[in-house]
Amino acid sequence: MKNFTKKAELQQYLATLRAGGAIVTFVPTMGALHPGHLSLIKQAQQLGNVVVCSIFVNPTQFNDTKDLEIYPRPILEDIKKLEQVNCDILFNPDVDEMYAGNESWHLDIGELEGLLEGKFRPGHYQGVTQVVYKLFTIVKPDIALFGQKDYQQFLVISRMVSLLNLPVKLVMCPIARDADGLALSSRNIHLTPADRQHALILSKTLNSIKQQFSPDHIDQLQQQAVTAINKEPGVTLGYFEIADAETLHPASKSTKKFIALVAATVGKTRLIDNVVLKD
Ligand code: PAF
Questions:
Q1: What predicted TM-score, i.e. pTM, was given to this entire model?
Q2: Among 51, 93, 211, 223, which residue carries the largest CB count within 10 Å?
Q3: Which atom of ligand 1 is nearest to the CA of 29?
């Protein structure tokens, strides 16, 4: 695997590959790679012939400095994992390489960035679009892959791509889960064994709502989910929302594609998860 920390060197290398006809696929990450990330790399290998993975803990998407400080950064283990799945290129810049001093610009992609996660983490998606826009400009991927776990992030990035006419195809890959249902997340390493048990209420509740789902009972189901999660010790619910999967507005009977999204703090760790209810 080639490992770049400087954008100019990566760009030069990719230009040569592209001139030879390479289809470049791209998996942006913040590292602390788990099997979910590696499944994105494997999917990327099916869709193109050069896979770039970026590892960059982007400071501008953290609205809590403590959260940024404790974000895991096991770079040597990450490199090993990427080599094991035959990733072609790692881009691992430092903050100065990505940001020229105090950059205060952001993209405004409209109301989507202020709903749900955006309400709880003001500015988060502005940081995400800022860094993903920069990464797309550097890597110029034909295809970029993201996990469904941050479903709202995928919608936000899709909106950015469409508003700015960026020449990249986006692919959303299924949520990777542990055998007991917990959605894989780099943040799971902060969960104590007890937290981890309590965290299962999130996927259990999503599953139960999916099984019972009917557009005629949205309010009751939502209330049922909120009650179940609130009863779980050690879990503080941020939101549980049955939403229109296109707009993330609260769903109504006439919604066509439904999704249930949840965010909660388990112990000290904020987790998100979701499930598509009806397509
Ligand atoms: O999903 C993530 O890991 C990050 O939000 C991303 C897309 C790499 C941007 O920093």
A1: 0.97
A2: 51
A3: 8
